[in-house]
């Protein structure tokens, strides 16, 4: 025996009905079959709407006409295969249901009341109509089914809209159908049963799945098939998470948890009857019957990931009852939940603080007000005595749950879950973990849902992770970064990282696009972009969109931009910067940056501040973190000066060497930043601060590369025109040193005595003498690295390496495994 349940879209039209019959015919070849059908999609909603409108004395004719027309149209479309002998009675049957509906609506209108019993009866008309059509079509195929009336076999009691099945009675009513000589093909409408005395009782919205499961249990079926419109149970609702994928297998427990916490593909009560009798369940796609779908069994293969799936339950309210008077009072929790039970309110999730001073729980939003009233009554005495504070209710919430048998006894799953929520700036109102360790739920704001689901899914399953870049500054470094992103993006995508440039700005223009700006011809797009303060646009974009992993990338050298980092972090952006102005600004700003980053759980990365892409900052941080004491840092920290001094050594006049360095874009936009030593001083300052030194830029002893009496002020053009004046003296100095076997190097150092930068004559055999042509070199003498210091040396000038260093920082923020 196999029970096959077809959902609304699977019986949504003539073509779908034909497919149901095909699938039933094929199954019938193998075994006895019971079909359970839902209403044509949209019809149940229509009926419930009509009942409400009738109760409010609104116009219902159009609604009842739509009920009639929808079914008549399907019947007409099937006329060819039904033949007049079958179509006529079908039309009469459908017309009778339509007139039953009109009668019921009229009654509701007259009484201005739609009792739960009436609504249960009325809302089941859709299933009955669908079954009439299927019955005629099956007969036409020579498969005449036995029609089963659920009101006679699915015996229930309790709430007419959420009835409780009486399994023993159901099994005894099903007995004649169960026996081996029983009918080979049966057809039953889903969604409702009866009280055994003629009254219809509904199993609740989406209840056809439950009807089918009850029938499967009562018939001792070997298999229960849930035919729907997706390829099985997905790792998350595919409408919410496009990355979600169908799960080949899940355990009964996992399916129950997923369904309970909102996976609409299964009614939450479906699994229990099947599990009790060990009946495997298959969830499959009637639009793609060849797809294997999901098998739900008690022997599901262990999953690859600890998390099997995610679910999302909307329309939730959190109720909180708190007060010092609750502490240590036995029976408080019992009274809270007794009050809920008494009011017929089902509690979805419970948490309690260890102080026992507060109990929080979730209910359906629609029941929140009643829940609060019920508690106010139950705790009236305590409230009056001031032992219980106001009972609070927070609406607009949802429950995001991760579910998986593999989570049991696994460390770190909750950590990944909550850190993923933090990544997308999602605050958590309450947390619950089932004692089975099979699910962890977080109560979050419903509006945070889609991005939270997408991001948690990405983190749990390593599916594509979207990284959004907002790039400020498109000079040599920024421009090169965009080129490198464009080149690397396809390779990264193949590894599950979708690197998107969502905004580009320079000092005059800004373009933004959530889906990412296609990078070919970005220059024209930027030029055509709007003006105005780009950083405001970035902040607004991040606040409004709340994207997954948004990173502000600063490739400017602007102080104003550097001052804006804290506000950008507050808006939810991580910051990666090549701009030294932030870390070399006031010490108070340096500290604020780190405090803001930590408070908002944002990352602040700046590896390119010293030595372009050379791993300087990271190395130094690791030395400090692991307890080494750094005694002295010394190095050639300016690729531009190393390049210029290299040329001077070859006999090139200083002014010409500066010109060449500028042409190659090796210098800062204003080369005086390099020549006067300010740029190196900033780097030395940044290194010193990594060592925990509270220093300001003025505290760095600075000797300019230019002679003290040279006037370096005024506009850049004028300065460059004056520069040849120093060529001769500079050349002479270099020449004199050469005779002594020495060369000039511009060296920055951090020692016990303090920070300094300046020209230092070094002997040719000194390691720093070999560093030229744009190279950087740093030596760290420390307690561990002593007497031989740790040395980092390599190319450290120009846009290509700096941009690569920025990109490397960006990729440090990516979780998944990279190429
Ligand atoms: P039916 O009418 O066949 O009962 P439903 O609309 O009740 O279909 O359930 C199927 C829908 O459930 C899918 O179209 C999908 O949008 C939604 N859904 C939610 N969560 C999941 C999930 N985890 N896996 C698959 N589908 C899901
Ligand atoms: N047709 C009913 C509903 O929409 C039952 C079901 O589809 O499962 O709720
Ligand atoms: Mg359903």
UniProtKB/TrEMBL annotation:
The keyword Membrane is assigned to this record: no
Domain of life: Bacteria
One Pfam family cited in the UniProt record for this chain: NAD_binding_3
Cofactor needs: a metal cation
Keyword Chloroplast: no
Keywords: Amino-acid biosynthesis, ATP-binding, Kinase, Metal-binding, Methionine biosynthesis, Multifunctional enzyme, NAD, NADP, Nucleotide-binding, Oxidoreductase, Sodium, Threonine biosynthesis, Transferase
One MF annotation (Gene Ontology) recorded for this entry: homoserine dehydrogenase activity
Domain ACT residue range list: 321-407
Gene3D superfamilies tied to this protein: Acetylglutamate kinase-like, Dihydrodipicolinate Reductase, domain 2, NAD(P)-binding Rossmann-like Domain, VC0802-like
EC number assigned by the record: 1.1.1.3, 2.7.2.4
Pathway given in the UniProt record: Amino-acid biosynthesis; L-lysine biosynthesis via DAP pathway; (S)-tetrahydrodipicolinate from L-aspartate: step 1/4; Amino-acid biosynthesis; L-threonine biosynthesis; L-threonine from L-aspartate: step 1/5; Amino-acid biosynthesis; L-methionine biosynthesis via de novo pathway; L-homoserine from L-aspartate: step 1/3; Amino-acid biosynthesis; L-methionine biosynthesis via de novo pathway; L-homoserine from L-aspartate: step 3/3
Catalytic activity of the protein: L-homoserine + NADP(+) = L-aspartate 4-semialdehyde + NADPH + H(+); L-aspartate + ATP = 4-phospho-L-aspartate + ADP
Signal peptide from the UniProt entry: none
Family: In the N-terminal section; belongs to the aspartokinase family. In the C-terminal section; belongs to the homoserine dehydrogenase family.
Subunit architecture: Homotetramer.
Main function: Bifunctional aspartate kinase and homoserine dehydrogenase that catalyzes the first and the third steps toward the synthesis of lysine, methionine and threonine from aspartate.
Protein name: Bifunctional aspartate kinase/homoserine dehydrogenase I
